[in-house]
Amino acid sequence: QVQLVESGGGLVQAGDSLRLSCAASGRTFSDYDMAWFRQAPGKEREFVARANWSGGVRSYADTVKGRFTISRDNAKNTAYLQMNSLKPEDTAVYYCAARLRGLLGYNSWGQGTQVTVSL
Questions:
Q1: Are 51 and 60 in contact (CB under 8 A)?
Q2: Could you tell me which residues are beta bridge partners of residue 40?
Q3: Cα distance between residue 112 and residue 84, in whole Å
Q4: What are the CA-CA distances from residue 82 to residues 11, 20, 64 (Å)?
Q5: 94, 100, 78, 104: which is closest to 25 by C-alpha?
Q6: For residues 52-72, b (16+ Cβ closer than 10 Å) or e, as one string?
Q7: What is the arithmetic mean of pLDDT over 89-111?
């Protein structure tokens, strides 16, 4: 499995921006589709965004569409989540995940990075 490490979380105010990074190691990064999920306190983990192995195909949850952008740099073995116009309801632990091309489930997960958005 590929190993994933997230970074870039923090405490920001509503309307601010953050960029999360997910550094991958251990396998060929371009063999994997990448995604971001998040989990708020007391809630289930939810899908945020995904990008296929090349980054050419992307999709988003309706709650973040138009505000968040997923991208990846296969030369740097890193995926990103650019988050703009942050809202308090975006507060959560954000996880990146990887799945081998052609598979359905994400079987590699990072440890998560906390994002807190205050009013």
A1: no
A2: none
A3: 19
A4: 15, 6, 11
A5: 78
A6: ebebeeeebeeebeeebbbeb
A7: 95
Which neighbouring-strand residues pair with 117? Answer: 12
pLDDT tens readout for residues 65-81: 999 999 999 999 999 99
Task: Spell out the residues 6+ positions from residue 105 whose beta carbon is closer than 8 angstroms to its own.
Answer: 99
Tokens read off for 112: 């998560």
At a CB cut-off of 8 Å and minimum separation 6, what does 104 contact?
A: none
Tokens 């650019």 belong to which residue? Answer: 82
Give the tokens for residue 84: 């703009």
Type of residue found at 28: T
**pLDDT for the residue numbered 8:** 98
